Structures are given as C-alpha cells and as structure tokens.
Automatic annotation (TrEMBL):
Record domain Alcohol dehydrogenase-like C-terminal: where: 166-297
Name of the protein: D-arabitol-phosphate dehydrogenase
Protein EC: 1.1.1.301
PANTHER family xrefs: L-THREONINE 3-DEHYDROGENASE
Highest classification ranks of the organism: Bacteria, Bacillati, Bacillota, Clostridia, Lachnospirales
Organism: Robinsoniella peoriensis
A single MF term (Gene Ontology): zinc ion binding
Keywords: Membrane, Metal-binding, Oxidoreductase, Transmembrane, Transmembrane helix, Zinc
Length: 350
C-alpha cells in the first residue's frame, strides 16, 4: 500500500511524492491524516531551504494501524500528533527538564502534509467534541500556551504581542483568558488586505487595540493606551523586530521571542547595556517539545480560543501549488489547512 506526501524547497517548489507505507513497529502507530495546518515555519522553509524537505507538523487524523505493545490508542481513534515529544528516560527528563530531552520522539523525516504518518504512540492525543480542523490547531496553540507561561504575565498585567498572525491572535486570546488588563497586537504594515482580516480577528479574540510599526509614533501611542508599564512583550514576528520590542520595553519588561526566519534575517544586533540597565529579560522559546497538548485541546473544546474563526482556506493536498500565490500576494489569509480529501472550501484559490 502506498501514500502521498508533500515536500518542498525555496521558491515554493513543491513535489507530491508517493511512498510505500511503513509497517508500525513496537509502540508505533500508523495514522491516516485528515488535516494539516500550514505553519509559518513551512513558509520559511519554502523561502530558504535549498533541498526538498518534508512539510507540515500541525496534524490531526485517525489511527489506521497499530504495532506491538501499543496501549494508549486503538484503531479508529481520532488523534492529534505532537511533532516532537520527550522520551521521559534521559537524564534531562529525569531531572525535570523535558525541554532539554536528548532522545525525543519526532516525525522522523515524514511529512505532516501527506496521507499517512507513522509515529510513536506517546506522540498521540485522542480528541473528541471538536472537528479535525480545530484539532489541527492543538500544536500551534500549545506553542502559544507555553509562550504565554514563559512570559510570566502577572494577573492584570499588560501585554504587547508583536505580529498579527495566527500565533499572535491565539496569544491575545490566552492573555484575555488568563487575566491581562491590557492586550495589544502590533502588525508590520497598515492597509493590506491580509493585515485587515487579521486585525479584525485579533480584536475579536479580545485584543484591546491593534496598531502597526508603519504608523508614525505608534510606540508612544501604544504606551499611552497601556496606561502603565508593559509587563511582557511576546515576539511572534520576525527576529529583526526584537529591536522594536526593546524600544517598547519598560523597566523590568520580560520579552519572549518565538518568531523564526531560517535565513540571514535571523541575525540581529542589540544593545546589551540597555537590557542590563533596564533589567529586561529575554527568554526565547522553541516548541520542541511543545507540551501542553491536553490543556490546548481543552481550551479549544471550551471555546476559550476560537480557532475555527481563524481558518480562511482549506486546500486539497493535490492542489498545494496554490500556496505560492496565496502567500505571495495580498490575500485575506490567516490560517490555511491542507486536507487529504479532494474538496476545497472556505477561501479556495485566490
């Protein structure tokens, strides 16, 4: 039996490959994928990666086949897949530092944008009461949950989120849920079709205001709106915007960068003296492992984060070539889902 999977490289070069399906081994499970979200990291790979590489890690699907000694799931279960999870056995894990695990289970070079994937059972979480499309948000929402916890925002704290993409919008919803008194999102450029639809989504998620780096005196205006010192700045935008975060930071502000570039624009020069004298803390976060999958599923199921409203396009796997046009032009895109059936819905081709 064979299955198709998507790989890509810079220039949005995409190739749909067919491969023999693996037989799940000890503690392994073969998943029939239903939906995979397009992540910003996929877009960076399609801009910078020289060689064809697997795409997609925001996965929901059904258990199709199980290997020996599998006990956590059964055939037919609806599941979401962690792209990386800790082993629980290495020294770092045993010392309580799962984020430093030296033997993580991962996707082993398989594409989430494909028909099937074979993974360790510890990477799976059963879901119910939500759609497969909503469930596919579990991984990026888990990133946001971990990011917000890393930011250590106090109750009634003031939060600024750089970026107005899906991660920023979900972080805004979490900030409201966890009791922030002021939440602002900052986009790059005002007046684009894409940013307008994202601005509306951020406000609907609970942000008090949305402004843009292109606006004159936006920092001064934002500080006036905040009405007091900013406690935390979450940087979901490209690494170069860390300078904007430092300019916005007040005495003691905690800054959490999670935006990647995967190219030359990841290199940023910053003023260390200023960081020391202002007692700012910069704590980068990477979702390996993301963790918090059960909590994220609960937040989706309870409607705390209305992920369904973020889906603007659903594209069949066989038509993934439209991604280049979708993201290179000024289209009203928030979140794109790749579906393994042949039906296009919602935004369709732009």
């Amino acid at each position: 039996m064979k299955g198709k999977s998507l790989v890509g490289s810079k220039g949005f070069q995409l190739e749909l490959r067919e491969r023999d399906l693996p037989t799940p081994g000890y503690n392994q499970v073969l998943i029939k994928i239903g939906v995979c979200g397009v992540c910003g990291s996929d877009l960076h790979l399609l801009s910078h990666q020289a060689d064809l590489t697997p795409l997609g890690h925001e996965i929901s699907g059904k258990v199709f086949q199980i290997g020996r000694a599998v006990s956590k799931v059964k055939i037919g279960d609806d599941v979401v897949v962690e792209d990386k999870t800790y082993c629980g056995r290495c020294t770092a894990c045993k010392n309580g530092h799962i984020e430093l695990c030296s033997d993580m289970h991962d996707l082993n070079g398989q594409s989430g944008m494909g028909e099937y994937i074979c993974v360790h059972e510890n990477m799976l979480h059963i879901f119910e009461g939500i759609t497969p499309e909503e469930a596919a948000f579990t991984e990026p929402l888990a990133v946001c949950v971990n990011t917000y916890m890393t930011a250590q925002v106090p109750l009634h704290g003031k939060v600024v989120i750089l970026g107005i993409g899906p991660l920023a919008i979900m972080c805004a919803a979490l900030a409201v849920h966890y009791g922030a008194s002021f939440v602002a999102c900052v986009g790059s450029k005002e007046g684009t079709k894409r940013n307008k639809i994202r601005e509306d989504a951020a406000l609907a998620a609970g942000a008090d205001t949305v402004t843009y780096m292109s606006c004159e005196h936006y920092k001064e205006t934002l500080k006036l709106r905040a009405g007091g010192p900013i406690d935390a700045i979450i940087v979901t935008s490209p690494p170069s915007t860390i300078k904007e975060a430092l300019d916005l930071a007040d005495y003691g502000t905690r800054i959490v960068p999670i935006g990647l570039d995967l190219g030359e624009n990841s290199k940023v020069q910053i003023d260390i003296d200023r960081i020391i004298m202002q007692k700012n803390t910069i704590v980068p976060f990477i979702a390996e492992p993301a963790g918090k999958f059960p909590l994220s599923l609960e937040l989706i199921r309870d409607g705390v984060v209305n992920v369904k409203e973020l889906i603007t396009h659903e594209i069949p796997l066989e038509e993934a070539a439209v991604l280049k046009n979708l993201f290179h032009n000024d289209n009203g895109v928030i979140k794109v889902m790749i579906k393994m059936n042949k039906e296009r819905s919602i935004g369709g081709m732009c």
